[in-house]
Amino acid sequence: MAGVGRYVPERILSNEDLEKMLDTSDEWITTRTGMKRRHIAAPDEATSDLAIRAARDALSRAALEPADIDCYIVATATPDYLFPATACIVASKLGVVGKAAFDIEIACSGFVYGLALASSLVRSGMHRRVMLIGAETLSKIVDYTDRSTAVLFADGAGAVILEQSEEDSFLSCELGSDGTNPEVLYVPAGGSRLPAGAAADKHAHFIQMNGRETFKYAVTKLVESSLTALERAHLTTADLALMIPHQANKRIIDSVAKHLALPPEKVVVDIEEYGNTSAASIPLALFEALEAGRVNKGDVIVFVAFGGGLSWGAVTWKWQ
Predict the structure, then answer these.
(1) Is 83 exposed, middle or buried (0-12, 13-18, 19+ CB in 10 A)?
(2) Long-range pairs for 175-178 at CB < 8 Å and ≥24 separation?
(3) For the chain, which domains are there?
(4) CA angle 43-17-212, nearest 5°?
(5) Which of 58, 126, 252, 254 is the most buried (most CB within 10 A)?
(6) Confidence bin at 150 (pLDDT 50/70/90)
């Protein structure tokens, strides 16, 4: 990765703020989620605005210009519009016209799916450099009268630049999905199943989640996909320097780490500060790990996520 950047909105929504809005408490939220604060986009901030700031940060750190990127990919469940793709807007506002640009919409698994795809585009020789951005404004689709979801979701963006190199960083991946019961975690309205104008209940436009089912499914799939990805790279958990999981819930992360017998120093957790930012959570956590000096040349990292779809995935990566 040539550059890693991030952006989070200035406004903070703390547990104490939520205490004033809902029948909840700091203790209840912290115990069940590990979250203390969330960054919330301003009313006039769209997902592309966050993505652009993260992209510029990554470009600056890589000493590159927007035109040096051959393809822009945005992983998001909260695009600016149903179409055009948010990535097209991002590239244009960065001053780039004529480059490939498209979105991935697989919710919280978006960054892992995107990393597998972007790596393929680079490794195949199709593109020399690809920028992958995970960006979300989930606050726009959160029902702040629903305690089960209002305390979880937040906004932010993280960007990485992949480029051709002599040594391959991508070691393996495992991607999967099960769309049998989308109601476990979904937004009912806004698509062709229930168009926006046909939804009489305004709550249909907000995230709805069966927390218990999501928790059980998440732990199982995060563990399975991590082990499968490692096995495909002919590695074991003993070879891991870091696991960087989707920051959905600290209890989920702790349970996965326990199943994999990973000590705390090998697991990146920043959920206290950022909450659940869906496709943005892994690149944000990667940024924090880099800033803390936890990532070193030659380290084997597993990026792993679970989300709506239901979907899951893991990528085994060697840091160069």
Answers:
(1) exposed
(2) 175/109, 175/112, 175/113, 175/116, 175/225, 175/311, 175/312, 175/313, 176/221, 176/225, 176/311, 176/312, 176/313, 177/106, 177/309, 177/310, 177/311, 177/312, 178/309, 178/310, 178/311
(3) 3-163 (3.40.47.10), 170-318 (3.40.47.10)
(4) 95
(5) 58
(6) very high
Q: How far apart are CA 229 and CA 226, in angstroms?
A: 5
Cβ 244 vs Cβ 207: under 8 Å: no
CA atoms 177, 183, 185, 190: torsion sign:
positive
Side chain identity, residue 95:
G
Residues belonging to the active site: 108, 246, 276
Read off the pTM: 0.97
Is residue 198 predicted with pLDDT exceeding 90? no
